[in-house]
Amino acid sequence: MSLKRKKAPRVKPINNFLLLFVLSAFQVITGFVAAACGEQFEAKAIIALLCLVATEWVYLLVFFIFFHRRNFELELIAFFLSGVGLVTIGSVYPDSAFKQYFMVLAGIIAFTFLVFLLGNVDLCMKLRLPAAAAALLLLLVNIVIARATNGARNWITIGGITFQPSELVKIAFIFVGAATLEKIQTSKNIFAFIGFSLACVGSLIIIKDFGTALIFFVTFLIIAFMNSGDIKTIILAVASAVMGGAIVLKYKSYVMRRFAVYRHVWEYPYDQGLQQTRVLVGIASGGLFGVGIGNGYVRYVYAPVSDSIFGVICEEWGFIFGILLVLSFVAIAVSALVNSIAARSTFYSIAAVAGATLLLFQCALNIFGITDILPLTGVTIPFVSLGGTSMISCWAVLAFIKAADVRTYNYLGGAKKK
Amino acid sequence: MKMITKRGIFLWILSALFVAGIVFLTVSFVTHGDEWAMKRYNRHLYSNGELIGAGTIYDVNDKVLAETKDGDRIYSSNKTTRKSTLHIVGDPKNFISTGVQSVFDSKLTGYNIMFGVYNIERYGKGNDMKLTIDSDICNAAYKALDGRKGTIGIVNYKTGDIVCAVSSPSYDVNNVPDNLDTSEQYEGVYINRLLSAHYVPGSTFKLVTAICAIENIPDIYERTWVCNGAYKPEKGVEITCNANHGGSINFKNALAKSCNSAFAQIAIELGEEKLNATAKELGIGSKITISGAINSYEGKFNVENAADDLLGWTGIGQGETRIAPITMLRIVSAIANGGEAVSFNIVDDFANQAGKALNITLPTNKVTMMTPETASQIKTMMRYNVTEHYGDSRYPGLNLCAKSGTAQIDSNENHNIAWFVGFMDDESNPYAFVVVVENGNSGSQTAGPIANKILQKLVS
């Protein structure tokens, strides 16, 4: 580790308050439209939105005043995405609006907690083994007591609360991957991580969560590549190929069925191609500017606020808006890459790039799957789609990118010195 | 650290691929958006399969043929109009693929990728379309067919505007018969017979043979033929004639009396190459496109390596030739118009939801089918047909030029297809027509009076 003190990259300061003000106005207006779009005014939708706006301001003020933070770009992007998701969900299922808001709140809390935790690298190194163990245990529990839902057994209900263990494992996966490889690049560490990865992907294959398995696989590739590039990389690549092959073989019939419809959705508009065709028809109907919140028909199709939410947004908010929304993930990726250059250690760099990859790749699988550019895998859009555990995990993953930004802890350090 | 930084390249590549995917989606959206929007399960535009996103369709006199009111597609208030314009307007389920509601679906909704279906939602309907057809004439034509299967087409041969296009059987969309899909009575009800029927042309094809003869046999008018009620070619079976025309029938009378013996001999003399060339020039074997979008059956004509007898049969319109009535309508239009066939058109005007006229570019190309001299000669002969054979008094004031046809499809006379094609040689009423009646035993006796009835209404 270099002892040279790194300077924060000089960027033109953005007025966070002005940005949040504009965002709040946007969220309140869209929230109001969503609440008023149905036959009767749905107060739940707008109240949930107002709660979110309040939470955003509290977060900004607390960290600006008490923690002297000045970098809020990532949070603002995530607020934007979460807000659009909440408005859409509020307009389709007003009764789910509060649940979604509480999940965003839980996500923000998890994010805040994790950012503090990641500030202490030594503690992180100590926690990597317990985290790996906890992740494996979760997946084991998932396999044992999971029940079948929608073709993928990835839900567990404990004490009336339904959650997806694989979502929490995502956090542990990046954490363990980055921490293991950063420590000392010994063969032992690398093989330990390969073993851990195989266990994770293998478990996901068993519970037939093909989409998430693919996300883990790509994240694994990124983490592996971020590591040293000699003979070990080749071993990693071979391991990757074996894992990839295993996925394909295991899912041959399943994958084949997906591929039968892939690029042929118009031939199956009433069965396997139903979601994709309705989303494409919705995108076309919305045009560039949309038909307005509540006036679309994609919202009446299967899974309108999880798989098909991109279609609902494009149809009602317009294609231009839909594209800008998903380009947010590219902004997060670029942010992670910029942050990784000046990060305090390789741990932060690897974690940030891996986290951004995970979010971007998951978004790609969703929007390109539902528009028939890639095979449909049934994953959700991070931050936007309806989800409890997934919302928390998205915010937690964002914490890895936040932690790589030197400004995050610089101000904290500066505050401590005073 | 630097190594780690460089290895971020993977995420850069992933980001680039992501943007490439977005570009691909955008390009697909721009190029296929209208196709996607026009899917039958798009509930913005369709309700129970009905194109409720379409605007109002008017006839040439601004009578409403179909409109959308409060999310329902409503057809003309006149029962006969609903039946007589069914094949042009289209049916609610879009089974009639040549109807304007089906062919111009995207234009009728006014869909565009920029605003999507927004304007349709806002106004509750799409673009309005005015057609060239006259529903009163269509109704007269439908009534004149009197329930018999067949078709009537009338076109202005100078402008190409179709005034009447009726196909029977038809049905009332407001009162769909239970046995529509099962009864023999409604056989081919979803077909616009004017455009899509595969009819044997019968003696109307003698016009084609005559045009070929005028162009290729210099002394055709000096020639005579022998007709003993039949002609036996050197090779093959005998070709029977409808009458015994005696020892020396000339060209004009051969056409007027529709002498099979004479025309079989002419066809054999012309040979396959010349007949083929003329048929091709006259558009047999190629589809006719109305208003740049509605396509007809292209027809079938093949005399390649034909034996003498088949060539003879082909020359009198029996053989293996099949044509849609509109093909014959276009040939007589060209004859009437000095040899030039103008593009047929059914769309008169287009306007958006706010009533603003929209520019539609319709192809207005002209095709020269024959020389003006040939057109003039065949026109004289068609006029002679009426004055000397069909009787001008039966077509008073029309200055009619025509040719009848009685196509045999089997040995039963009652199954004959009755044809009557022609035009009015009248500057103020430049209309060409085709009348086809199935199971009508004689062209001039069955189809002729129907043509007269409608043309009289048209000129009055």
Can you give a write-up of this model?
The complex is a heterodimer of chains A (418) and B (460). By secondary structure, chain A is mainly alpha-helical. Chain A is 71% helix and 3% strand. Chain A is built from 16 helices and 3 strands. Chain A has a 3-stranded antiparallel sheet. In chain A, helix 8 packs antiparallel against helix 9, helix 8 packs antiparallel against helix 14 (346-370) and helix 12 crosses helix 13 (319-342). The longest helix of chain A has 25 residues, at 121-145. Chain A starts with 15 loop residues before the first helix and ends with a helix. Residues 412-418 of chain A have low confidence and may be disordered. Chain B has 460 residues and is an alpha+beta fold. Among the domains of chain B are: 2-33; 195-347 and 361-459, DD-peptidase/beta-lactamase superfamily (Beta-lactamase, 3-Layer(aba) Sandwich). Chain B has helices at residues 2-6, 9-37, 79-84, 86-89, 100-103, 105-109, 118-123, 135-145, 193-196, 206-216, 251-256, 260-281, 308-315, 325-336, 372-390, 443-459; strands at 46-47, 50-51, 57-58, 64-69, 72-75, 128-131, 150-156, 162-168, 224-227, 230-231, 239-240, 246-250, 289-290, 294-295, 340-342, 347-351, 366-368, 400-407, 417-424, 431-437. In chain B, strands 5-4-3-6-16 form a 5-stranded mixed sheet, with no helix packed on it. In chain B, helix 10 crosses helix 15 (372-390) and helix 12 crosses helix 13. The model of chain B has no long low-confidence stretch (mean pLDDT 91). At the A-B interface, helix 8, helix 11, helix 13 and helix 14 of A face helix 1 and helix 2 of B.
